[in-house]
Amino acid sequence: MNTKEDFIAIYRENIRREGADALLDYLENKSDFFTAPASARFHGAYAGGLCDHSVNVYRCLRAYLDRQRVQELYGLEYSQESVAIAALLHDLCKVGCYKAGSRNVKGPDGKWQSVPTFYYEDSLPYGHGEKSVYIISGFLRLTREEAMAIRWHMGFSGEEDKRTVGQALEQYPLAFALSVADMEATYFLEREEA
């Protein structure tokens, strides 16, 4: 099974609320979600990287929540649907933003050569997490915890006031968990030489 098939299987198995089918149709047939990179030059900087990253974050989030025994220790309960929504859809803000191109780099022989790359062009500059929440909300209704997790999934690596980030992560533990899962996927599972 390839990553697109994994994503669709996880999505269909877990996300069942009203609008889920329309959102999946949008991802499959009206967007570049399954062919877009996750970034222009770093993690997942290849066609299909966004889907790969989303599935990796889902697996990391599930493992984190299981490993930390969040429900037992803190009395928090997250449905499999909430976990799947937060992890699989946290980076929808990247849909339609990457354009294929090339750049020149020096090769091992010291000569310049053209290599493929992606350029970031955002036609809807609405913010990172905010934009993902906005796109998802056009299809299905998010719980407050899901919306906050997606909005704040960048954690302290974003450009927001650190006090605000800390308040959000403290008030919405799923946001903290998603941030950890996103970093684990990005910096450990998907780490490549830049």
Tell me briefly what this model is:
The protein is built from nine helices and two strands.
3D architecture notes:
The chain is mainly alpha-helical. It has one domain (3-96, 124-189). It is built from 9 helices and 2 strands, in the order αααααββαααα. It has a two-stranded antiparallel sheet. The longest helix has 20 residues, at 49-68.
Give the strand line-up of the largest sheet: 1-2
H/I helix tally: 9
**Structural domains: how many:** 1
Radius of gyration from the alpha-carbon trace, in angstroms: 17 Å
Structural class: mainly alpha
Spatial separation of the terminal alpha carbons: 28 Å
Helix content: 40-55%
- The residue ranges in which pLDDT falls below 50 over 5 or more consecutive positions are none
Q: What's the story with the biggest beta sheet?
A: 2 strands, antiparallel
Order of SSEs: HHHHHEEHHHH
Number of E-type strands: 2
Q: What's the shape?
A: globular
Q: Percent of residues in beta strands? A: 5-15%
